[in-house]
């Protein structure tokens, strides 16, 4: 008898080379997270730019890419957000084939619960905006929530009862590591050098233009440099004298042991701060609220986990005797308007992609696509143009937490 | 055949107390003191389940929390998924089964209680083996407050699995001393599972589970201990490890130390005839104890070439290794590297020990590979922590005792105590150790050489990962899933690193381990949630009138943590009917509402007006004593943050009200500026939210009601004008009456002490009776204010809205040189004519109620998405007064579009609506004076 | 108006029976009762200024100068208790019904100094907690070290108890006063009663 | 759960505090005189160092005082604590 996991697809026998860095590249991408890897892949594939290195300070995709709760959805409020996330979702829908890698993309739907009358208003607002933006979205009443996910407690005796939820059927999850490796393998095959344990320690700028990077493995020259350092974005940008409006915070997640299927979709509740899905092998994957303080330690405080568990049991009493197997933390770079920053910087040929905070996994193919375009053309792709750094000066924010804040 | 593998005597089980249980559909008996694993072994059950991926037979491999194999599902008395048989204490009525893959959650709610406790101590000792007991004993004797936690039912640690009677007696007497000391808390069945900053250690105590159905319901089943220690001693012992050889997953392959524990502690022979395979001395102790208990030892295979070839009459095959364990569904024979074969039903393995470094590493302690030890050991940590005994790589009992003593002493001294008299340590006769050798993988068929038994990961799998290009053990973990199962690689982690290093030809020390993360052992969700569930999940805040509202049938709305009456349905009424009735009563007669949840802040001091001028967009300093002004606060980004009224009580004293949700935030906001920006301002702020209860008395007949209640108060318009207040007595109660209106009607807010709230409310209700006074809730309040175009912060605003967007230019002072938010109004984005403005909307059909959240578009037919949107409906109601539904909306350039028709896409339809002023009711404001 | 019906109501009046039941159910291990209507004045002034001295003199109780302390007096009595709330903030607790008088006395003693005296008597209500398990009961929701040597008679703190902000005052014989905001009082009582289940006497 | 030493109340659990981000960012003396870019810096840009960071905490559950802390953002080690308004100490 074979158990869960035995039906999971095998990884390919070959993933990537481990090359020594060359002395110079057309493009250097800093950070081999999902974003950096996808960017390198689309640079090669869409723009024919293959003399590319992705430099990674640790092991490949060992940052937030290794530690996110893998929720993919595009039901964001504002047009600008819907544009880029929906572009990403469309790419997700063909990604397995494109990368020729089983990434376990599962469109099992995502429910965002509403617990107060204001939540309901915000949810309906988001659903209506989504529809007009061509994003699939539905409003579910509590009974419909229960139909989509039978173990949600929709009774009124919950402290903050479920008043309904928004539902995006095309949303879902994918296996984070496989996604990273799929992009890595495909980029490697197109000639991109993936260089691990190579930390960028300085950015060389001459006459207002980037010329290369200093690393723990020596200087590497570059025509263009693209930052994709997520939690470390401020640290890297500082090397070019650039301050970014981001703050790095710990964000924690946890998994249970493997369980028989009980949770067929993804349920998120902002009000009580818990996000749940059941991964392919059967473990419950849950995200928590963010730790309040700045932190680069890849770990958070325990009361956040305790809070998350009480929230989980409010919504899912059936989880009472499930066990937490492992908790962990990542470093998320949060912007004042909870939207990312993707585009040019004050330094010529130095590009920035950061500020995805708690929700950038879902954007991986989309941002890789647009960022590669931005780098190749020296100007923003229309989908990331609204996410420029100078919006903070003009005030043209894309405020995703004021209205219908949903993290992840 | 009852317990045929049970020894005739010995062990720490209670042979007088038989325990009946069921496993895999069959009934068995064991003894009190057994674990499920020891009871199964006693009954000859050697295979517990099949493996997750390959479906191979699997049995009991270890004797404690490190067990990777013997997963079970408890079905009764209450379903609990995925436990290890080695950690389930046996109790009467236990029903369990082996678990190959996924655990099962219960369908019914868990009736058990769970709770948490905070504990503080000078010295926390984790682990009550010889090292931990010694440490705790010294620390306690010094007078320090000590907490000692151990995950076993009784103190003693590894000693419990030995026949070291001297040491065991010592342990028992130390434990007795500790129990008798009021400054010591000795917690058994308690696992420290998380070690966090500032010596914060989280533990879980399993309090009643081992009692089975007899567990008292009023006691918490599991308890989380949040322990804050000034100094920590980790004496968590070590886990024995195996190595990779063919068939090393067969039931009957067991860690040598575990077998020793089964014989000595549980009086169980794990087999009849054993081969022992070792790389170090420790397995000889196991062999000796098994031999004495009547287990035949077929041979000892010792990988060390210089091992003594004879031991107690047993052949020692020095310098040899195992080629494979052979058998169908359990070990039948063991084949050596030279082809020799020994029939055996048990293969005891020891490939060395891994100090239990998980907790140490969780909190940032470094682990370094010690080549002599052949394992990773503690090597420096920022916390105030000592590591002692096997956890530190020190294995002889004497060494553990000495290290524990030293650690306890150091911890006590570090926290200001002087070590005192301690119980003398036992003397133990231990042979000097011969150095071990270190092996990871033996030659053979890599596809049957298991590294992680629980995840079915073999050497072949690891070779595929390294072959694919992986160089990091973190990648190999994720590619193969090694170390990610229930046991988190307690026995397999170091082995995985060893095998990867071996395959890559690198040093295992350079390669390192994967990251240790809490929890050290799995912990239930319910334990972590504790009592913060249901009504206790988050405080329910109520006003002084809550029981009255409940008794009068109110339905409640959660507003932040508050419960506010939403509406008061009468028989047969739905929301709409009730609200229509309530609204009509207020517009035509008189209504009353509990407005106590508004935040109230007493702001006083010579510079109070200066502070308020800086924080509100409008001018507050010009307010006269006795008068009231509405004010708006913005964040520095210029977006509306809060609104409310400001009452001037004296030249240097104000009472500020805030929205219900923002009371704390506004007070924090004020204190922030006072303490950090303008410490020169002489202002004191005090929250008085609950000091006062507030009853809104609203409607054209409100003056008459107030007149009746406060006969001495002149209430006509001239004597008591709009936006003024009076201190007076109402219904004989000291009260502050404010003439404020949030509905456009003549209205008063009556403020009395929280203690007097019910008395006031009942008096108003009685006095209003002749006028048909009607209680109303938040929904009616919202309708009434919306008819007047008054925004609700948080409903009609979303953090992207300025006062100007709300059409409230009048509340933004042009005179003040600065106030918080002012500078932002000058940014490019704020000057755009097409910002979204708050406007009114009237559906052209006079009947459609627009959903709140609906969007508006310009065109009569929808194009393909993305459809350009103009804005959205923020508030929408049926209006009794207007006789039609209406809405408020934020619309791009809305104020310049008055009278224009736009469309709300609702389902398939496009509903035409006309943009109007947001003030739809009594725009001239004639009603406010009655 | 029927004046006699206009009775004051303390925030926990409705819970008195349930609290009394706790003592019975726990065999006296835990005793919880509301002390309603205590006078409470929030006092804010410069601890080093003349107002501090004048205020203390008027009260007959020294203002505690540091955290963790509560003082009582006038000498030999504990009619008034002054709790340190912050570096320039105290809570003066007195017998029911004295708030106006006490506030007036304080204000006139302080004179023209920049100080605030705010009547907050109804803002919080007070619970008296005692019995052999009182400390454990608190420890299940309070992160402070409540060991008698650390938090004994005369100790005080503002902190969190469960999810409510409270002022904790150590009293004689291991008893405590817990001051909680009126709107949170019902929650806290529910929480305490639930916590006391642990100490139920069973037969 | 860090133990944060409130300069007034002594060490208390992190849960008793509110985080206030970077310290020593003062409200501009004359906002009207700032360029849009400088005003944006005040509004949105804060240091985000990996390592020692001067930051603000408010002891919201107790004395309600704001104070400053220098904390290592990698290790959470608290290197200094000082009242609001005092200059940032030099950390070796
Ligand atoms: C717990 C958690 C849950 C989350 N859940 C979700 C979710 O459900 N859905 C979702 O959409 N998003 C989620 N996210 C967010 C998502 O993970 C991130 O937004 C996204 O991964 C960021 O992009 P990335 O993959 O490129 O980042 P990373 O994977 O973090 O990549 C950045 C890389 O840059 C490297 N780097 C940094 N500095 C340097 C340097 N100087 N030199 C070289 N390399 C450097 C880092 O080591 C790292 O590998 C979650 C995040 C966390 C932490
Ligand atoms: N001969 C050898 O090579 C060898 C090797 C290892 C150990 N040993 C023997 O083991 C003993 C080591 O003594 P010791 O005191 O260092 O360790 P120990 O193993 O005797 O005691 C450790 C105790 O800590 C408990 N524990 C571990 N982690 C815990 C946690 N997170 N929370 C709560 N409890 C936890 C364990 O269950 C155990 O009871 C000695 O008797 C030694 O001889 C011998
Ligand atoms: C979606 C998802 C599922 C995971 N499932 C498991 C799991 O079943 N077992 C496990 O031990 N860890 C699991 N992890 C956590 C990883 O082991 C690891 O903690 C995470 O990648 C962060 O890395 P670190 O803890 O090594 O820092 C999972 C992580 C994610 C993001
Ligand atoms: Zn404090």
UniProtKB/TrEMBL annotation, chain A:
Entry keyword set: Cytoplasm, FAD, Flavoprotein, FMN, Nucleotide-binding, Oxidoreductase
Domain Rhodanese positions: 27-71
Matching SUPFAM superfamilies: FAD-linked reductases, C-terminal domain, FAD/NAD(P)-binding domain
Organism field: Planosporangium flavigriseum
Protein name: Sarcosine oxidase subunit beta
Enzyme Commission (EC) number: 1.5.3.24
One Pfam family matching this protein: DAO
Transmembrane segments: none
Any one of the GO BP annotations: tetrahydrofolate metabolic process
Catalytic function, reaction form: sarcosine + O2 + H2O = formaldehyde + glycine + H2O2; sarcosine + (6S)-5,6,7,8-tetrahydrofolate + O2 = (6R)-5,10-methylene-5,6,7,8-tetrahydrofolate + glycine + H2O2
UniProtKB/TrEMBL annotation, chain B:
Domain FAD/NAD(P)-binding, residue spans: 122-364
Residues covered by the GCVT N-terminal domain: 545-816
Keywords of the record: Oxidoreductase
Segments passing through the bilayer: none
Transmembrane listed as a keyword: no
Domain (SoxA A3) ranges: 448-531
Keyword Oxidoreductase: yes
GO function term, MF aspect, one: oxidoreductase activity
SUPFAM superfamilies hit by this protein: Aminomethyltransferase beta-barrel domain, FAD/NAD(P)-binding domain, Folate-binding domain
InterPro entries per UniProt: 2Fe-2S-bd_N, BFD-like_2Fe2S-bd_dom_sf, FAD/NAD-bd_sf, FAD/NAD-binding_dom, GcvT/YgfZ/DmdA, GcvT/YgfZ_C, GcvT_C, GCVT_N
One Pfam family matching this protein: GCV_T_C
Domain annotation Aminomethyltransferase C-terminal: ranges: 836-922
Homology family: Belongs to the GcvT family.
Protein name: Sarcosine oxidase subunit alpha
Organism: Planosporangium flavigriseum
Gene: soxA_2
UniProtKB/TrEMBL annotation, chain C:
Pfam family for this entry, one: SoxG
InterPro entries named among the record's database cross-references: SoxG (IPR007375), TrmE/GcvT-like (IPR027266)
Superkingdom: Bacteria
Gene3D superfamilies recorded: Heterotetrameric sarcosine oxidase, Probable tRNA modification gtpase trme, domain 1
Membrane-spanning segments: none
Xref: SUPFAM superfamilies: Folate-binding domain
Identification of the protein by name: Sarcosine oxidase subunit gamma
Source species of the chain: Planosporangium flavigriseum
Automatic annotation (TrEMBL), chain D:
Highest taxon of source: Bacteria
A single BP term in Gene Ontology: tetrahydrofolate metabolic process
Molecular function terms from GO: sarcosine oxidase activity
Protein name per Swiss-Prot or TrEMBL: Sarcosine oxidase subunit delta
Organism, scientific name: Planosporangium flavigriseum
């Amino acid at each position: 008898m074979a158990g869960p996991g035995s039906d999971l697809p095998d990884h390919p026998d070959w993933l990537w080379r481990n090359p020594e860095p060359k002395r110079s590249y057309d493009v250097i991408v800093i950070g081999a997270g999902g974003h950096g890897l996808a960017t390198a892949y689309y640079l090669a594939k869409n723009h024919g730019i293959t003399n590319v290195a992705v430099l990674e300070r640790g092991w490949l995709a060992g940052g937030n890419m290794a530690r996110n709760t893998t929720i993919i959805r595009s039901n964001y409020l504002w047009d600008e957000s819907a544009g880029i996330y929906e572009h990403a979702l469309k790419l997700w829908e063909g990604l397995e084939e494109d990368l020729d890698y089983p990434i376990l993309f599962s469109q099992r739907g995502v429910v965002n619960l509403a617990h107060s009358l204001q939540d309901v208003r915000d949810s309906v607002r988001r659903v209506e905006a989504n529809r007009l933006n061509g994003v699939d979205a539905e409003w579910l009443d509590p009974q419909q929530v229960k139909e989509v996910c039978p173990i949600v407690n929709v009774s009124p005796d919950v402290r903050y009862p479920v008043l309904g939820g928004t539902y995006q059927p095309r949303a879902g999850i994918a296996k984070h590591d496989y996604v990273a490796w799929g992009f890595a393998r495909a980029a490697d095959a197109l000639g991109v050098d993936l260089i691990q344990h190579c930390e960028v320690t300085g950015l060389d700028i001459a006459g207002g233009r980037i010329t290369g990077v200093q690393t723990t493995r020596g200087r590497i020259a570059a025509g263009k440099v693209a930052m994709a350092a997520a939690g470390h974005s401020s640290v890297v940008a500082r090397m070019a004298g650039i301050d970014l409006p981001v703050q790095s915070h710990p964000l924690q997640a946890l998994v249970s042991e493997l369980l028989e299927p009980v949770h067929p979709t993804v349920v998120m509740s902002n009000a009580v701060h818990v996000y749940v899905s059941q991964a392919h092998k059967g473990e419950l994957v849950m995200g928590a609220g963010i730790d309040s303080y700045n932190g680069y330690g890849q770990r958070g405080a325990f009361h956040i986990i305790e809070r998350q568990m009480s929230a989980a049991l409010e919504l899912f009493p059936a989880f009472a005797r499930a066990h937490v197997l492992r908790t962990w933390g990542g470093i998320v770079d949060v912007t004042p308007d909870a939207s990312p920053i993707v585009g040019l910087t004050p330094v010529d040929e130095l590009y920035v992609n950061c500020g995805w905070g708690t929700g950038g996994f879902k954007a991986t193919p989309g941002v890789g696509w647009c960022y590669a375009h931005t780098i190749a053309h020296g100007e923003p792709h229309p989908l990331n143009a609204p996410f420029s750094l100078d919006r903070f000066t003009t005030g043209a924010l894309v405020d995703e937490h004021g209205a219908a804040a949903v993290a992840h | 055949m009852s317990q045929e593998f049970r020894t005739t005597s010995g062990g720490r089980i209670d042979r007088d107390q038989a325990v009946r249980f069921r496993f895999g559909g069959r009934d068995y008996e064991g003894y009190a003191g057994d674990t499920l694993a020891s009871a199964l072994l006693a009954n000859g059950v050697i295979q517990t389940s099949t493996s997750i991926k390959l479906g191979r037979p699997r049995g009991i491999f270890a004797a404690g929390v490190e067990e990777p194999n013997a997963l079970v599902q408890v079905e009764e008395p209450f379903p609990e998924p995925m436990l290890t048989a080695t950690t389930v204490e046996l109790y009467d009525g236990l029903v369990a089964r082996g678990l190959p893959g996924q655990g099962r959650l219960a369908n019914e709610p868990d009736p058990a209680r769970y709770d948490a406790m905070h504990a503080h101590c000078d010295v926390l000792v984790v682990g009550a083996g010889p090292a931990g007991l010694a440490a705790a004993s010294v620390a306690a004797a010094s007078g320090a407050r000590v907490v000692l936690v151990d995950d076993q039912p009784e103190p003693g640690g590894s000693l419990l699995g030995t026949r070291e009677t001297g040491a065991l007696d010592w342990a028992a007497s130390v434990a007795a001393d500790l129990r008798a000391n009021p400054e010591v808390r000795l917690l058994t069945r308690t696992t420290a599972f998380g070690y966090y900053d500032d010596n914060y250690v989280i533990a879980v105590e399993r309090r009643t589970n081992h009692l089975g159905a007899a567990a008292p319901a009023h006691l918490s089943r599991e308890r989380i201990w949040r322990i804050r220690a000034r100094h920590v001693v980790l004496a968590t012992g070590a886990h024995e490890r195996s190595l990779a050889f063919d068939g090393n997953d067969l039931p009957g392959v067991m860690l040598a130390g575990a077998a020793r524990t089964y014989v000595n502690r549980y009086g169980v022979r794990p087999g009849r005839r054993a081969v022992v395979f070792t790389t170090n001395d420790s397995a000889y102790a196991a062999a000796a104890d098994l031999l004495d208990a009547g287990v035949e030892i077929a041979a000892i295979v010792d990988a060390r070439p210089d091992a003594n070839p004879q031991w107690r009459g047993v052949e020692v095959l020095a310098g040899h290794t195992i080629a494979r364990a052979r058998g169908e569904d359990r070990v039948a024979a063991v084949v050596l590297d030279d082809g020799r074969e020994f029939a055996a039903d048990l293969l005891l393995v020891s490939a060395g020990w891994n100090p239990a470094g998980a907790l140490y590493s969780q909190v940032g302690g470094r682990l370094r590979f010690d080549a002599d030890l052949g394992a990773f050991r503690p090597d420096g940590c920022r916390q105030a922590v000592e590591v002692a005994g096997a956890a530190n790589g020190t294995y002889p009992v004497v060494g553990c005792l000495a290290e524990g003593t030293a650690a306890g002493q150091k911890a006590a001294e570090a926290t200001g105590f002087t070590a005192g008299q301690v119980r003398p340590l036992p003397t133990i006769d231990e042979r000097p150790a011969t150095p071990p050798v270190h092996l990871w993988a033996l030659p053979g068929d890599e596809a049957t050489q298991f590294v992680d038994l629980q995840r079915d990961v073999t050497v072949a799998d690891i070779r595929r990962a390294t072959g694919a290009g992986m160089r990091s053990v973190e990648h190999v973990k994720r590619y193969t899933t090694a170390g990610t199962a229930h046991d988190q690689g307690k026995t397999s982690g170091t082995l995985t690193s060893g095998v990867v290093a071996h395959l890559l030809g690198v040093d295992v020390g350079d390669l390192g381990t994967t990251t240790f993360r809490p929890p050290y052992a799995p912990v239930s969700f319910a334990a972590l949630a504790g009592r913060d569930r249901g009504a206790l999940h988050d405080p329910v805040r109520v006003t002084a009138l809550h029981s009255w509202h409940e008794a009068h049938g109110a339905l409640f709305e959660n507003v932040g943590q508050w419960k506010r009456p939403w509406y008061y349905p009468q028989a047969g009424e739905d929301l709409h009917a009730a609200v229509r009735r309530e609204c009509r009563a207020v517009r035509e007669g008189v209504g009353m509402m509990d407005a106590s949840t508004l935040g109230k802040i007493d702001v006083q001091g010579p510079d109070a007006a200066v502070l308020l001028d800086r924080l509100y967009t409008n001018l507050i300093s010009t307010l006269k004593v006795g008068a009231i002004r509405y004010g708006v606060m913005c964040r520095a980004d210029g977006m509306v943050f809060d609104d409310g009224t400001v009452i001037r009580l004296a030249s240097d004293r104000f009472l500020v009200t805030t929205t219900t949700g923002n009371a704390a935030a506004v007070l924090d906001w004020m204190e922030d500026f006072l303490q950090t920006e303008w410490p020169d301002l002489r202002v004191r702020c005090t929250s008085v939210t609950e000091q006062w209860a507030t009853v809104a008395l609203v409607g054209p007949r409100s003056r008459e009601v107030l007149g009746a209640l406060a006969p001495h108060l002149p209430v006509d318009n001239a004597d008591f004008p709009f936006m003024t207040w009076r201190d007076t007595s109402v219904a004989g109660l000291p009260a502050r009456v404010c003439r404020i209106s949030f509905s456009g009607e003549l209205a008063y807010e009556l403020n009395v002490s929280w203690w007097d709230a019910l008395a006031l409310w009942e008096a108003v209700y009685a006095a209003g009776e002749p006028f048909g006074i009607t209680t109303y809730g938040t929904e009616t309040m919202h309708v009434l204010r919306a008819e007047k175009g008054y925004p609700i912060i948080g409903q009609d605003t979303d953090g992207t809205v300025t006062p100007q967007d709300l059409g409230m230019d009048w509340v933004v002072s042009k005179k003040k040189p600065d106030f918080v938010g002012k500078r932002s109004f000058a940014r490019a984005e704020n000057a755009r004519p097409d910002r979204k403005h708050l406007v009114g909307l009237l559906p052209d059909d006079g009947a459609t109620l627009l959903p709140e959240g609906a969007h508006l578009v310009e065109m009569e037919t929808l194009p393909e998405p993305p459809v350009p949107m103009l804005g959205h409906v923020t508030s929408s109601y049926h209006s009794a007064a207007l006789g039609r539904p209406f809405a408020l909306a934020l619309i791009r350039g809305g104020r310049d579009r008055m009278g224009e028709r736009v469309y709300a896409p609702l389902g398939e339809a496009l509903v035409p609506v006309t943009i109007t002023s947001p003030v739809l009711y009594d725009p001239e404001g004639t009603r406010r004076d009655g | 108006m029927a004046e006699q019906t206009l009775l004051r109501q303390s925030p926990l009046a409705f819970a008195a029976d349930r609290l009394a039941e706790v003592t019975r159910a726990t065999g006296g291990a835990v005793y919880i009762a509301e002390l309603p209507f205590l006078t409470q004045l929030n006092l804010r002034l410069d601890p080093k200024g003349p107002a501090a001295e004048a205020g203390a003199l008027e009260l007959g109780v020294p203002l505690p100068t540091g955290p963790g302390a509560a003082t009582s007096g006038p000498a030999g009595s504990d009619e008034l208790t002054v709790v340190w709330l912050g570096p320039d903030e105290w809570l003066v607790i007195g017998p029911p019904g004295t708030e106006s008088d006490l506030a007036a006395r304080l204000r006139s003693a302080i004179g023209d100094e920049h100080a605030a005296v705010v009547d907050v008597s109804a803002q919080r209500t007070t619970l008296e907690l005692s019995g052999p398990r009182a400390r454990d009961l608190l420890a299940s929701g309070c992160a402070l070290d409540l060991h008698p040597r650390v938090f004994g008679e005369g100790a005080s703190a503002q902190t969190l108890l469960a999810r409510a902000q409270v002022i904790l005052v150590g009293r004689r014989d291991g008893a405590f006063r817990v001051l909680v905001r009126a709107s949170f009082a019902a929650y806290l009582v529910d929480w305490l009663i639930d916590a006391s289940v642990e100490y139920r006497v069973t037969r | 759960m860090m133990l944060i030493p409130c300069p007034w109340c002594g060490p208390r659990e992190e849960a008793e505090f509110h985080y206030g981000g970077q310290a020593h960012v003062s409200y501009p003396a004359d906002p009207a005189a700032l360029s849009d870019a400088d005003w944006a810096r005040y509004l949105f840009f804060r240091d985000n160092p990996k390592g020692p960071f001067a930051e603000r905490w408010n002891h919201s559950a107790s004395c309600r005082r704001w104070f400053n802390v220098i904390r290592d953002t990698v290790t959470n080690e608290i290197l200094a604590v000082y009242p609001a308004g005092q200059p940032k100490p030099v950390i070796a």
